[in-house]
Write a structure and sequence with these properties.
Length: 127
């Protein structure tokens, strides 16, 4: 299968992006993928039934993360990839909020309450 880089997305994450991306890491590994790097400067490889897609994640602003897909089969659309990444990130945000609520109930401070994740197209190949 021919592969080429074509997708980039910016995710506005309503709470601590380092913690949220840290929660996405085991989801990717559990699905048979790999994640390398630290915090929000990571590379990943995520399997699908029709091939893997690879990419990287970088923190752009305190709540804005850019995810760029660097390699994917032609048959996997950017829209499909965006949908899968949104599922992972939204689930991680929900987990983070639940942990924050539990921490608040035990007397610790809680961050962010909204589970809304905004996504927009980002520059491809750093353009």
């Amino acid at each position: 299968m021919k592969k080429h880089p074509t997708c980039a997305f910016n995710f506005k994450i309503p709470a601590d992006p380092v913690a949220i991306i840290g929660m996405v890491r085991p989801m990717i590994v559990e699905a048979g993928g790999t994640v390398d790097g630290e915090n929000t400067d990571i590379t990943f490889s995520i399997p699908t039934v029709i091939g893997r897609f690879d990419g990287g994640c970088k923190l752009l602003e305190p709540t804005l993360v850019n995810i760029t897909v660097t390699d994917k089969p032609d048959v996997i659309s950017c829209k499909m990839i965006q949908k899968q990444l949104t599922v992972y990130i939204t689930e991680a945000v929900k987990m983070y909020i639940e942990q924050s609520k539990s921490a608040a109930a035990s007397g610790e401070a809680a961050d962010g309450e909204a589970a809304d994740v905004e996504v927009s197209d980002g520059p491809v190949n750093g353009a």
